[in-house]
C-alpha cells in the first residue's frame, strides 16, 4: 500500500515544477495562476488575478473556469504539495501545459512578490448566495462581480417591479430606479414592489423600502423624475 510520501513522489515525477521566480516569468508571459488553497487561506492573501478553486473542488469545476486545455497554467498552494497533486490531476484531465509552483504562496510572499487581500464574501453573504456559489458559471468571483455591478431600472411598475426584485435578490450591488409616479390602488394587481399601505407614496420610495427589506446588500438609488433626452446623461 503506497504511503503519502510515495504518492507525492510519484506525482512530482510526472509533473513539471518551478519556483516563484519562474512562475512570475510565466505569469508575465500570459500563464494563468490557479490557486488551490482552501477559502480561509485564500482570504488571508492571494496573488492578484489568480483563479481560486480549492483542491477538493478542482475536478468538477476546473473545466468551466479554465476551458482552454492548451493554455499555460501555474498551480499554487501554500507550499507546493497540493499543487503537485492538482497538477497531476490536470494533466490526467488533458491539460497539456501545467506547472506546479514549488514553495507555494508562502515562498512567493516571503520573497516580497506582489500579493493582496482579495475581495471576499462575508459568512452571511456566503449563506445568502449559496446557490449562486454552487454554479461554476458564477462562483465566488461571479458573485463579487454582481455585488459590484450597477443596473438602472426605467420604471417601478408592472415590468420594473419583478425585474428590480430579481436584481436585488441576486445581489446586484447598485440598483437605480427611475419613476415619477405615485402608488395607486389600481397598480397593486401587477406592481409587486408596492402594497396597500403605500398608496399615495412615491413609487421610487416604495420600491426602495421593498428592495432594502429584501436585501440590505443592495444600494438603491432613486430618481423621482421623468426620463428624457434632457436628463438621461445625468
Looking at this protein, list some descriptive labels.
alpha/beta; 5-stranded parallel beta sheet; 234 residues; elongated; 40% helix; 2 domains; Oxidized Rhodanese, domain 1; FAD/NAD(P)-binding domain
| Number of β-strand runs | 8
- What's the structural domain tally? 2
Which structural category fits the helices and strands? alpha/beta
Order of strands, main sheet, comes to 1-5-4-2-3
Rounded radius of gyration (Å): 24 Å
User: In the CATH hierarchy, what is the superfamily of the largest domain?
Assistant: Rhodanese-like domain
Estimate the global geometry from the Cα principal axes.
elongated
Order of helices and strands: HEHEHEHEHEHHHHEHEHE
Name the poorly predicted regions. Answer: none
CATH level-3 fold name of the largest domain:
Oxidized Rhodanese, domain 1
* Total DSSP helices: 11
CATH architecture of the largest domain: 3-Layer(aba) Sandwich
Arithmetic mean pLDDT: 94
Please give a structural write-up.
- This protein is α/β, with parallel strands linked by helices.
- The chain has 2 domains: 4-111, 3-Layer(aba) Sandwich (Oxidized Rhodanese, domain 1), CATH 3.40.250; 149-223, Ubiquitin-activating enzyme E1, inactive adenylation domain, subdomain 1 (FAD/NAD(P)-binding domain, 3-Layer(bba) Sandwich), CATH 3.50.50.
- Helices cover 40% and strands 14% of the residues.
- The chain is built from 11 helices and 8 strands.
- The protein has helices spanning 4-14, 20-28, 39-43, 58-65, 82-92, 104-110, 123-128, 130-133, 139-147, 160-170, 203-214, and strands at residues 16-18, 32-35, 51-52, 73-76, 98-101, 150-154, 174-178, 219-223.
- The protein has a 5-stranded parallel β-sheet with strand order 1-5-4-2-3.
- Helix 1 packs across helix 5 (82-92) and helix 10 (160-170) runs parallel beside helix 11.
- The mean pLDDT is 94.
